[in-house]
Amino acid sequence: MESYSRRWFLGVSGATMLTAGLTACGSSDSDSGKSGGQLTAFVWGDDAAKIQEDAVRKFNASSAAKKTGGTIKLQRIPGSDYPAKLRTAMGSPSAPDLFFNWGGGSIKAYVDADQLIDLHDIIESTPALKNGFLPSIIQSGALEGRPYGIPMRGMQPVLLFFNKKVFKDAGLEPPTSWTQLLDINKKFKSRGIQPFALGGADKWTELMWVSYLVDRIGGPEVFRKIQGGDASAWGDPAVLRAAEEIKSLVDDEAFGKGFSSVQYNNGGASTLLAKGKAAMHLMGSWEYPTQLGKFKDFAENDLGWVAFPAYDGGAGDIKNVVGNPTNYWSVSARTKNREAAIEFLKTCASEEYTKALIANGDIPTTANAGALLEDSPNPEFAKFQYELVQNAPAFTLSWDQAVKPDWSAPMLTEIDKLFLGQSSPKEFVTALKGLK
């Protein structure tokens, strides 16, 4: 469940975190040119931070640290304290040199305040960075095509999980097209099985459906305009069509009658899938460890996964992915030692770092990870995710983390109202176009 916690916390608190306490502290030649001394790095203080702690320890003892005259002090900040701590630090003279984030909208306010280094030219001129990561991952954390972060943890794509036994008993295969999905829904309902589990008590679970449908219907360009802050882009026909499909699914009881009272947090939706009461579940890749922890036999024998289906006649590629590409290190424009910071970022592309992530159960975003995944706790699942992302023309960051911070909460509210039948598809689009 820690993957879930990391994914969601910033989405909930992003507006508070990023719109208060910032000052436009751009870099100066004297600041960026400094060398020597100790750099500070803020990291989300969960169990996975042990990977970053080990990387810092090794870097500080390396020839690169000696060459650049810089070492790094890692500060593990508890998740509940991270947003406030980072916001306060970035608005003060003691901003961290590097810090953990989710890319996209999670760093927009810092970019707008000229507080981060645009890494484009650095990546292009540094082979270890340019060739070290899957291109879609670098771009997923970018803003207006400019990267401000280097991947430092595992990927978390959203997948369509399914109960193999339920499908086998029904003589069905998981859907690869929207038409097939609708047909399968009818067949499961006739057998008294709910087509999809949905933890509707947690609004972010509904977001995944809208995100994928907009991508499959209109392609990733639709959301890119929205992510760029163009509220009128909510009026794209793909958004309305996606909302209409959601309404049809809800009206057809594809999610059951009581989905709005089912939680993901307490395992409610996952239990429906594991117990065979629901056939499918659209969820982030953390669903696998969640199932493994709660229903081990099911996870190891009857849990399946596929890509979200193609939409018949849609502009989006079935290979496109939605979810959480990874977490990133960003570099403050006021770093004490830019050269040391870049040398440290290069270690995130190393085979040694990649192996450490794999051993921890993560799916790295490095270009060399594919050949190393046999050592993963579940090689089949690891390889599926890696190849899915590796072949993805586009990897769209979860909307709640990608949009402007002050759009996140109202957007989730409008999505929830659509699912609850409290607004029509047209009213949904109108409300989103009104976001300021």
List the helices and strands and how they pair.
Blueprint lengths: L1 H18 L9 H4 L4 E8 L4 H12 L2 H6 L1 E8 L4 H9 L7 E4 L6 H5 L7 H5 L2 H4 L4 H6 L9 E2 L4 E8 H7 L7 H13 L3 E4 L6 H15 L1 H8 L9 H15 L16 H7 L3 E7 L2 H8 L1 H6 L1 E4 L14 E4 L3 E4 L6 H10 L3 H9 L19 H12 L4 E3 L1 H4 L2 H15 L5 H9 L3
Parallel strand pairs: 1-2, 1-3, 6-7, 9-11
Antiparallel strand pairs: 3-10, 4-10, 5-7, 5-8, 5-9
Helix pairs in contact: 1-5, 1-22, 12-13, 12-14, 12-22, 14-23, 22-23
Task: Characterize the structure shown.
The structure is a single chain. With 436 residues, this protein is of the alpha/beta class. It folds into two domains: 2-155 and 325-397, Periplasmic binding protein-like II (D-Maltodextrin-Binding Protein, domain 2, 3-Layer(aba) Sandwich), CATH 3.40.190; 156-322 and 404-433, D-Maltodextrin-Binding Protein, domain 2. It has helices at 2-19, 29-32, 49-60, 63-68, 82-90, 108-112, 120-124, 127-130, 135-140, 164-170, 178-190, 204-218, 220-227, 237-251, 268-274, 287-294, 296-301, 338-347, 351-359, 379-390, 399-402, 405-419, 425-433; strands spanning 37-44, 70-77, 98-101, 150-151, 156-163, 194-197, 278-284, 303-306, 321-324, 328-331, 395-397. Helix 1 packs parallel to helix 5 (82-90) and helix 14 packs across helix 23. This is Extracellular solute-binding protein. InterPro entries: Bact_solute-bd_prot1, SBP. It holds the Pfam family SBP_bac_1.
